[in-house]
Amino acid sequence: MLEIKDLTHTYADGHVAVRDVNLTVANGELVSIVGPSGCGKSTLLRCIAGLIRPAEGQVILDGRPADGVPEGLAVVFQDYSRSLLPWLSVRDNVALPLKRRGMSKAQRREAATEALESVGLAAAGGKYPWQLSGGMQQRVSIARALAYRPSLLLMDEPFGSVDAQTREDLEDLTLQVRGGNDMTILLVTHDIDESVYVGDRVVVLGASPGHVRADLPVDLPGPRDQISTRELPEFVRLRAEVGRLVRGVTETTATAAK
Ligand SMILES: Nc1ncnc2c1ncn2[C@@H]1O[C@H](COP(=O)(O)OP(=O)(O)OP(=O)(O)O)[C@@H](O)[C@H]1O
């Protein structure tokens, strides 16, 4: 279980990016995080990833306070162009973090090949990242995270720079891989529909400073489907509710504005 307790982070210039964030995520849960630009989504992820030490509060993983980068963590960022090493082949990029797992060269190669297959890039292992399209590079980043078999996967706008079709494919891929592995996923997105489509819960952050504004369960049947799930009345209701919350409009003010 991931527990975030009373987390506050103030940057060196005195800017309070997030204040008193409390959040509990069960093992195997996929939680979408949405909120207006600058509300502290990335700051929160970076605190959980151990990349920045929060000014106050704690990140607790399976009952133990996290100190530094947690064991079993993988991260996928939006900027795939900077996340892959251009001088390594695609397969070697995917295999690289597995050295930390103490796997032999043959095991690393096999795991990388398998992960590339799962993202539909079995044939691209011998190529270099710069020989692939943006969407393909992002799939390589996801394959690298999956090969690592993380217990916690943090995704920061992972599909932000790919075309709409690839984005849907990657959303489905995320749902598919998390189904087969007991992986806890936190996914930051600007896309409200996406947050509802992939999430077991949607956490809406409010701004100035960042705080948890709402935590909504997503009660949609699985397996989810890009066409039929998005037509369900519950999907339509939730996306409207999340949309209002992100824009800072409450039910009461929305009604009053009519
Ligand atoms: N290194 C830094 N020093 C000072 N302030 C920072 C730093 N990094 C981020 N901030 C500020 O902290 C706030 C939260 O930033 P953060 O990147 O976490 O927000 P976000 O919700 O992820 O934004 P976006 O949706 O635009 O990516 C913003 O006001 C930002 O300007």
TrEMBL record:
Residues 2-232 form the ABC transporter domain. Pfam families: ABC_tran. One of its GO terms (molecular function) is ATP hydrolysis activity. The keyword Electron transport does not apply. It comes from the Bacteria. The keyword S-adenosyl-L-methionine does not apply. Keywords: ATP-binding, Cell inner membrane, Cell membrane, Membrane, Nucleotide-binding, Translocase, Transport. This is NitT/TauT family transport system ATP-binding protein.
